[in-house]
Backbone:
């Protein structure tokens, strides 16, 4: 038992507080499945789900589970959309706060582990798979420190585009407008790269439509001749108003209509 105690002590030094540990990582740390079972019996570890564990005396939340997914399992799943904007401090005026839904993004061929899906995190987890930036999957990603560990999240620029991607299925045009109004300090070089790389015509048109309405200063540094906006009309929701510049219809309540060559809400 003393040998087991020594191993758990070494493990504790390498296990970031309030995170999940998966069996493959525990094995690398010299903790076999049999030893994990012994630690569970002696109340050192609790089971989160199949092949995933937590320290018995430490609370965890979804970010501690995501840490294991990103760092130990190496899966390209990140925090995005409105959740990332909240973490950057841009969504304080929206109904997010404690217990708000969490938006995670990944490639179409990447699945959330079963243990993460089945565990009760106390919040609704939305997982969205998309090739929104298929050629540059890591473009616009950064790290955010949570307690003693870091997780990968979208930058503000990418997160806003992810919000627009989810309209109207999971996000509203009205909230997207409010979010865009607060984005006065976006980095034009990153916005430019994201617009050039984005595979969604809808997202690019909506992004520019809302940004121009807000008259953001960083717009002046964009070169839209290098952005492919596609052909044909796009419709967001039903019963919208049409904006001819970007060939897109948006919901009536927050519609953009044209008057004497200018766009208004």
Residues:
């Amino acid at each position: 038992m003393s040998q087991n105690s020594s191993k758990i002590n070494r493990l504790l030094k390498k296990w970031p507080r309030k995170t999940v540990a998966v069996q493959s990582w525990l094995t690398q740390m010299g903790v076999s499945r049999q030893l994990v079972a012994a630690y569970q019996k002696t109340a050192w570890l609790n089971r989160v789900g199949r092949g995933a564990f937590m320290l018995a005396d430490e609370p965890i939340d979804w970010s501690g589970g995501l840490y294991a997914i990103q760092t130990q399992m190496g899966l390209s799943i990140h925090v995005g959309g409105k959740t990332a904007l909240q973490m950057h401090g841009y969504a304080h005026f929206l109904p997010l706060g404690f217990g708000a839904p969490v938006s995670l993004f990944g490639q179409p061929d990447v699945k959330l582990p079963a243990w993460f899906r089945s565990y009760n995190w106390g919040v609704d987890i939305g997982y969205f798979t998309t090739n929104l930036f298929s050629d540059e999957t890591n473009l616009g990603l950064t790290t955010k420190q949570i307690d003693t560990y870091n997780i990968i999240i979208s930058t503000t620029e990418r997160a806003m585009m992810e919000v627009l991607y989810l309209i109207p299925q999971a996000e509203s045009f009205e909230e997207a407008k409010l979010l865009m109004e607060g984005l006065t300090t976006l980095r034009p070089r990153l916005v430019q790269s994201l617009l050039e790389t984005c595979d969604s015509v809808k997202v690019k048109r909506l992004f520019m439509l809302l940004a121009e309405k807000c008259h953001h200063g960083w717009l002046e540094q964009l070169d839209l001749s290098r952005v492919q906006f596609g052909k044909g009309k796009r419709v967001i929701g039903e019963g919208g108003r049409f904006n001819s510049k970007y060939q897109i219809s948006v919901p009536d309540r927050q519609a953009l209509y044209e008057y004497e060559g200018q766009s208004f809400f």
About this structure: The longest strand covers residues 141-146. The radius of gyration is 22 Å. The chain has two domains: 2-55, 62-264.
